[in-house]
Amino acid sequence: MSLLNEILEYNEKFVNEGEYTKYQTTKYPDKKMVVVSCMDTRLVELLPKSMNVRNGDIKILKTAGAIVSHPFGSVMRSILVAVYELKADEIYVIPHHDCGMSAVNTDEMIKKMVNRGVPEGTISTIENSGIDIKNWLRGFDDVYESVKHSVNCIKNHPLIPKTIPVHGLIIAPDTGKLEVVVDGYKELENVK
């Protein structure tokens, strides 16, 4: 059985037996926060449990490395929607230790792309159009610096209110322990 068929078979049972009812909530986060986290599989259940959040409490965005790399990219747009349309009034950036983005070798990734059928000409065309593909694919060397960079990108965005606390934490993917790197409340006190 294919993975898609397995999912659809389970889904039919899930819906028919009314399992969805225990997850029903509104589109507005009860705890009025948005979290930018890594897409790492270890965090799917661990991160919410370690923060004492349940379905309906938060808006969560998953990206590779919890990186906010562009002030006008889709991650930042989603944060703005959460703040202005969905009533979030705090922002948390939470990457993790032992992240795959800290070990990304862009040359090797490009080789893997070619090996899976992406023509080398396509990569050259992208590079010739002014996109530094290696920099675009690059991860980070230091998770502490990465979280500070993402927090600053959000906090200093011209469309983010200066009254919104932007926090930076790092989670241990084995224990769920949260470490505060940037306390958004303290940052707001320093602005006053």
Automatic annotation (TrEMBL):
<protein>
    <recommendedName>
        <fullName>carbonic anhydrase</fullName>
        <ecNumber>4.2.1.1</ecNumber>
    </recommendedName>
</protein>
<keyword id="KW-0479">Metal-binding</keyword>
<comment type="similarity">
    <text>Belongs to the beta-class carbonic anhydrase family.</text>
</comment>
<dbReference type="Pfam" id="PF00484">
    <property type="entry name" value="Pro_CA"/>
</dbReference>
<feature type="binding site">
    <location>
        <position position="96"/>
    </location>
    <ligand>
        <name>Zn(2+)</name>
    </ligand>
</feature>
<dbReference type="InterPro" id="IPR001765">
    <property type="entry name" value="Carbonic_anhydrase"/>
</dbReference>
<keyword id="KW-0862">Zinc</keyword>
<feature type="binding site">
    <location>
        <position position="38"/>
    </location>
    <ligand>
        <name>Zn(2+)</name>
    </ligand>
</feature>
<feature type="binding site">
    <location>
        <position position="40"/>
    </location>
    <ligand>
        <name>Zn(2+)</name>
    </ligand>
</feature>
<dbReference type="GO" id="GO:0008270">
    <property type="term" value="F:zinc ion binding"/>
</dbReference>
<dbReference type="GO" id="GO:0004089">
    <property type="term" value="F:carbonate dehydratase activity"/>
</dbReference>
<dbReference type="InterPro" id="IPR036874">
    <property type="entry name" value="Carbonic_anhydrase_sf"/>
</dbReference>
<feature type="binding site">
    <location>
        <position position="99"/>
    </location>
    <ligand>
        <name>Zn(2+)</name>
    </ligand>
</feature>
